[in-house]
Amino acid sequence: MWGDIAIAFILAFVVTFVATPYTIKLAKKVGAVDIPKDERRTHKRAIPKFGGPGVILGFLVSTIYLLIVMTMEKTINLTGIDEYGKKLLGFLIGIGIISIFCIIDDIKTIKPLTKLLGQVIATIVIIAAGIRIEGVSLPFLNFPEVHEVTSIILTLAWVIIVTNAINLIDGLDGLSSGISVISAVSLLIIFVLNGSSLLSIVLITALAGALVGFLPYNFSPAKTFIGDTGTNFLGFSLAVISILGSAKTYTAAVIVLPLIVLGLPIFDTFTAIIRRLIKGKSIKAVFKADKGHIHHKLLAKGYSQKQAVILLYGISAILGIFAVIITDSGIGKALSFLFIVIIAVVAGYKNFAPERTGKESYECLQCKYIYRPKIGNERAGIAPGTEFSQLPDDWVCPVCGESKDMFQLHPEN
User: Fold this and answer.
1) Does residue 267 form part of some domain?
2) What is the extent of the structural domain holding 369?
3) What residues are paired with 34 via a beta bridge?
4) Count of domains forming the chain
5) Across residues 4-24, what is the average pLDDT?
6) Looking at CB atoms within 10 Å, which of 180, 231, 295, 400 has the fewest?
7) Which of 107, 75, 377, 52 has its CA nearest to residue 232?
8) Is the model's pLDDT at 397 over the cut of 70?
């Protein structure tokens, strides 16, 4: 098994790492480029957003190669009673459906409801192929088997929620792909500890390898974004593989452990839905993007992009470790681990929190001009001592004429 895990990871890594530069060139040819048109975006220059196909290619090459080899070696049976071949085919068709919708979106842009339709169709395909949540088992809620209709509803809800959770958290360089790596590795460990199917172990390892191959191009400063094709593929795959990996277990691993592992993006998604419903007072408002996500709030507090991403990586890793400890040692040890981590974070928070003195300087991302409150901008009638937040909304960079939105906290602060 460990040899298969190594092959799945390395092969997916190499293929994605080699393919991604080609997706960058392709993105520019087909127009899959993210142009910062509003203040919600944290980047200020046009960046290709077609990294998804490279990640998908690495995942598919690794998975298909290994499954062919393992079938020849008879270490996996795709036509047996578990019908892994049928389930795998449904999964691959689902990936194809989501990819078609999202590739169009990355190039031309389509309505959120149209993308949601693609997600629903893909989920119906995997349900028809036999990939379902068949039970939920908790200390206080034990349903080893649920009604078929309930199973379908739970599966549909789970896949749609996770798919959109990964998509919505994709707001900073390397954020969605990095969190997905952490989630995939956490699920891999859980699958191994639980004795899950070899198919689910190979799939989750290939996903992790493909993402690690993509991250060097996506981490700040990003050379390319993963795009909607990539984030939807990641969310869909994590949701489906978590079901496949939990199918034979009768512990809290059924949905609950994947829920913990993916807790950060799922929490961000639910708070976004509630926030938008309250603010917009309509269902349509849920599909309207805003700047209220966790990563936006961290940036507003003065964290740099890299600091915010690393902090969110840390939270995601803690949740992943928490789920792994539950699997291996039980809820008691997991809660004690979490308690100690919380105490340590609270005790050391002041040492890592950004200090905002009100005297920070700000740098223009376009021309690198630095606005310093102590000096002001007397040519524009801005007296010395005027803080950046006090500048008029129509104030522009005195060098290149860019607006205030093109300024960020200078690294010297």
Assistant:
1) yes
2) 362-409
3) 47
4) 2
5) 94
6) 400
7) 52
8) yes
Cα distance between residue 193 and residue 209, in whole Å: 20
Task: Report, as an integer, the average pLDDT of 91-100.
Answer: 95
Q: Which residue has the tokens 């290939």?
A: 206
Rounded Cα gap, residues 85 and 99, in angstroms = 21
Q: What is the mean pLDDT of residues 190-203?
A: 88
Domain end (from 242, 257, 291): 291
389 and 275 assigned to the same domain: no
Residue where a domain stops, chosen among 246, 265, 291: 291
Please give the average per-residue pLDDT across 197-214, as a whole number: 94
Judgement on whether residues 13 and 125 belong to the same structural domain of the protein: yes
Closest to 54 (Cα-Cα) out of 226, 173, 221, 179: 226
SS3 382: strand
What percentage of the chain carries pLDDT values higher than 90? Answer: 38
Note the Cα 228 to chain centre separation in Å: 11
**Locate tokens 């928070």: which residue?**
349
Average pLDDT across the chain, whole number: 84
Collect all residues with Cβ–Cβ distance below 8 Å to 243 and sequence separation of at least 6: 131, 132, 133, 155, 158, 255
Q: pLDDT category, 251, cuts 50, 70, 90?
A: very low
Q: Scanning the structure block, which residue is given the tokens 């092969």? A: 11
Task: Note the pLDDT of residue 279.
Answer: 75
CATH at residue 372: 2.20.28.10
The Cα–Cα gap between 208 and 218 comes to 15
Torsions phi, psi of 182, nearest 5?
-60, -45
Residue 79 has pLDDT above 60, yes or no: yes
Tokens of 28: 């520019």
> pTM for this one?
0.80
Question: Of 235, 221, 277, 247, whose CA–CA distance to 115 is shortest?
Answer: 235
Q: What is the mean pLDDT of residues 177-202?
A: 90
Q: CA 374, CA 282: separation in Å to the nearest integer?
A: 46
**DSSP label at residue 75:** S
Summarize pLDDT for 237-249 with one digit per residue, the tens: 999 998 888 755 4
Q: Which DSSP string do the residues of 158-197 spell out, in sequence order?
A: HHHHHHHHHHHT--STTHHHHHHHHHHHHHHHHHHHHT--
CA atoms within 13 A on the CB side of 358: 3
As a whole number of Å, the CA-based R_g of the chain is: 23
Please determine, for residue 140, whether its predicted confidence score (pLDDT) is greater than 50.
no
Residues 202 and 97 occupy one common structural domain: yes
